[in-house]
């Protein structure tokens, strides 16, 4: 190649080289190692290799690009534009050929390793590199004089045309192979799965010619209470649909330990729960595909994250060992299985399942997924990441190391075991403020934009209860308004000066809203509700403190609240309650469903699987169940915000009234010192 | 180690070394790399490490072994002897410890890579090295402070105690793992499968403590007509039971091409045939295990060999491409699958299936198995190996290279399409001689030792027909006795001088035996029978000749007759018939069921799998269907023994009468020149 041949410069990579006139841009890109996508291998079918040529003077690059620097539109491009429409200024990289010096921009969507921008701006984008990819190949026709199987010639084509190493195929693919090759006239598209860290691939699907239908993956966060799934396009990582349903195992027990007990009491109970959750997952897969308008048989990958008990029950492993010390997992490593092994019978028959590794007997693949999404191991400052749910997963760490534990918060944060509690759904009070002078509440209801005291708050709003974030705000507001003392005791009407503090037996309850006139409930916060929240928040705080002890610190730099519910918690209220350690309020971030995001990362990026497996090995696990200090932290955390730890950052924002409603002003006898239930 | 420590010499290996007093013999053997077996890892349970110490003067080795050179019997040995009995002079290698210079003989059955002696003395023994092995391990108990899964600690134990690399486990094993570990008090036996050429193993089974039940494998020769299976002990290769059944696909078509036609005519017909053969295999597996008195769930490996059409129908692949040029296989490589994938649902749920590679579209895994058993590639002289069945697999080769083809002989050699033909079973005439002077026959019947003209031949013998080897001898004897001319025409009673040559329409038949008096058939050889045999033998000979053409030779050094039927063919009669090329009679060997033997080798020896995959790649495939010379060879081979090829070796043994019964003495119009059916 001499300097006489045209210069091709790619942006944004800046890669450049000289190529003979007539070289397709895709070819030039491949030779230079430019990240330009193609599925059809340069046949002008897939349109993945779209590029944007730039004309004019480019002093920075030292070239002038003249009209005619690329070949004219050819028939393939014209047809593509006619049928599907090509964005203005775009060319197909496989069709446009070099005629003169040219600057070629590769738009983000044309990169193989394109980045998927996530909602939370604080987190890094996902780089696309899924384990399952679609490629189109030309296969050599059979020759009886040099006989070889069709599969072997497909393997040769994958090697020669896509540099994909040894491949295997299971029976569903072997059955489909010969008709597809002949129908496609020896051109087929194949879905190729390469497990992380492997150099052997498996063909999961085959289609005649170019497969228009795409490949899809399912990222599932299998929680004790809810199952949430994202359906992703494996070519670009887009979430096409998200869906969720209740975990049907709830009928066997609300929390994990009651499910383990169910197995102990009912031989075969594990098989019942396994069948229930497998069936639910299969239904969810079909429903989400239907919602997105795709064929469920095009789902070729599934990534599931869940806690250890869910993990074992999903796989059909008796979880009884997880219910007693030393809490031994049957397997802690990541698993790559056939999805059909866990009853996913309505997606692709060859679909693969990847389960993230578990961190310990009480710290599951969901915590690993949070670690993958939030990357505490790369944090410069010391981050405390709390995935709030029926069970809280807690991670503490920075580049010097990461610690993890789980803590049994119980279902109170999700609105369960609360007198007027309900799941976050229309009609639920989700935010609340209490006037410190009048002690009157105002609130917002899910599904209504206005606050309850706004003029445009609809008079006919159905108010059905209070959800998890609502109860946290209510308790914190009650504390701030002087209706609740540090021990968690609600004051009487006399002591607080508001008739909303109603006597209920020997204790009091605060009335937020009386909806009985419209057939609704009386929404109150009872003394029992306060106790339930105290138990939950004490468990959470004690878990965090235990990790801080292990790390030898008394404060953290920032707090990340994760979990579907964590995203809705007000940092200030969480801190008034003493759920989380004291940090500046602007250092409390919300990460949304970090476990689900972690699942999606593992779905879209093969290397992330290797990475999390290594990270998990390095995480220091702390077992809350047997740490004597956990109990001590738990008792001290029972006060609101805390009996002994100062909250100086909180004090800068909020001054808590110094009230006391008990005989002695100390915590009453029904306080949270005794925890019988181990986990939620 | 100084020369002061005792010297331990192992025989027959001759390996020697000095070891401190108190070293167990098993430990010494392992350190020296002596091939001494052990499953329990030295716990005195499995008795696989039995050794025979030798005492006295050994000038050859330069040592004198004194009494007391080994430690006294300990309790473990005493208990073992009490419960199971230890052969006189034997010790347990893991219990007997070095006390002085000692010579230790390792008997053949105590070697890991023990040799399995096969019946045919001409063939090499199988060296035991199965893909699935049983080992016993001590597993570290779980520790919640350094949590890891039970599987991960099992993997650590396999690595440390048996040098077995990374392992995986599927759900059935994960489910069984925790109970087994606890029941076995952290001592378990595991069945570990390591595919040929892989460094990753899979745990297929787990048992508490020492697993007494053994591991078993099934070697299956899946033929068009019959399915034959050997159940082997994977520890020593012993055949515990052999069983066979008819291929139920026969109801869809007698030969391969009629089955392919059935699929073409009946959409879904392939699925019917797949279900039929899979069900038959599962039944066979259970039956053979029952016969051997073992639990079918202890069958962990299955090796199947079969022709390409059977191969595809077994796997559920539509075989239609095999029915037309270019006879493309869906896959030609070897396959390792889960046995449950082909419906083997009653053996171990994790059982593995290995299918040998196919050589070409018409030359299957059965031919590959014959190549593995007979090793033409290592033959110093040029060997022609013929696996005679409904379809004949033919291999020609020596160390300079191997050629292969298949030839559609049809079912005549198996007694089908023969007027009095029947399968080889009691009552069938299997051997026959015809007196050249009197033209009277004498014969032997399956199930009776005496010849028919012996005094002690039971008068009440039920004679039901004539089997494959019987019809071959009959035709050859008729030719030698002058009842049949070279063109294949049977002479009349007048021309031959015997009333046994009866007119039947325009042709004649030779009466072997009239059993009508006892309610049996009239067993005759008709002109149609002769034609069927001529078609079959011409196809066989033409295939062999085609390979000889390709190799550029007109004679071979030796002929091996393989196949269940091949073992029963008399070499002289086969040569009179012109089934096989002319060689000295003592150069015609019988190899028994070589395909089945090949399957057994692949079952017992992992390296054989890698080896046959390489051999198959090097075999030169010849497609008889499209070779013009095949037709020419076929026509010339129609004469008995041959129209043009001289048979000088045969002539030294047999002088064939120069008779001619046709008008011109040449082949009549109904001769075998036209072959419509492609394959059998």
UniProtKB/TrEMBL annotation, chains A, B:
InterPro entries: 2Fe-2S_ferredoxin-like_sf, 2Fe-2S_ferredoxin-type, Beta-grasp_dom_sf, Corrinoid_activation_enz, Raco-like_middle, Raco-like_middle_sf, RACo_C, RACo_linker. It holds the Pfam family RACo_C_ter. PROSITE patterns: 2FE2S_FER_2. The lineage of its organism: Bacteria, Pseudomonadati, Pseudomonadota, Alphaproteobacteria, Rhodobacterales. Residues 6-110 form the 2Fe-2S ferredoxin-type domain. This is ASKHA domain-containing protein. GO terms for molecular function: iron-sulfur cluster binding. It comes from Gymnodinialimonas phycosphaerae.
